[in-house]
Amino acid sequence: MPTPQELRKIRIRNDYTQMCNIRGNIISWQPVTGVAPYIEAYRITINVRTIIGVGGAIPKYRESSVVMLTLPPEYPKSAPIIMMESSPQPYHPNWFDNKKWCYGTWNMSEALGDHVIRMIKTLQFDQLITNEDSPANSEANSWYILNKNSRWFPCDTTTLPDPSSAPPPPPSNKGTFTVKNWKK
Q1: Is this prediction's pTM over 0.85?
Q2: What angle do CA 124, 98, 30 make, to 5 degrees?
Q3: At the N or C end, where does the chain have fewer CB atoms within 10 A?
Q4: Where in the chain are the domains?
Q5: Rg of the chain in Å (alpha carbons)
Q6: How far apart, in whole angstroms, are the C-alpha atoms of residue 124 and residue 144?
Q7: Which homologous superfamily does the CATH classification assign to the domain defined by 4-147?
Q8: Residue 171: its pLDDT value, please?
Q9: pLDDT per residue over 91-126, tens digit each?
Q10: Among positive and negative, which fits the CA dihedral 133, 137, 72, 34?
Q11: Is 90:46 a contact under the CB 8 Å cutoff?
């Protein structure tokens, strides 16, 4: 039977695979702590539009955000910690003023890539993910409740990658050719 440390190591290795599966134009990351495939902290750049404030009642946007994801020593029993590095933090019911993401309830069976995708859906203001019943930011929550039926939500509809499958390989020119200077 594996020890808790061995189980953690297996989990972190499997999480690394999911993180590789979501890496691309929308999500890029660099390891901060650890050596692949045993990464324990990631700096993640997310290229989706998110609301960062309101001027009057009209949202202000940012097109890209950077977060720091850290796996605590108790992971996977304890949730990953996700902190916004970009300023200001998202103006969202589920982001605290201290820039920490409020993930709701942690289920240790949720793989890391799935957790990251769920967090990104809050940046997009996906209404299935936004939890107005347990706000981390009451001011943003009040604004959201007043405006949730507006054209502003979701604020980004980019299709996010599937953490459980690798992206398709890039197109190849293998097997194709071009005929040049051919005359009848």
Answers
A1: yes
A2: 60
A3: C
A4: 4-147
A5: 20
A6: 13
A7: Ubiquitin Conjugating Enzyme (3.10.110.10)
A8: 62
A9: 999 999 999 999 999 999 999 999 999 999 999 999
A10: positive
A11: no
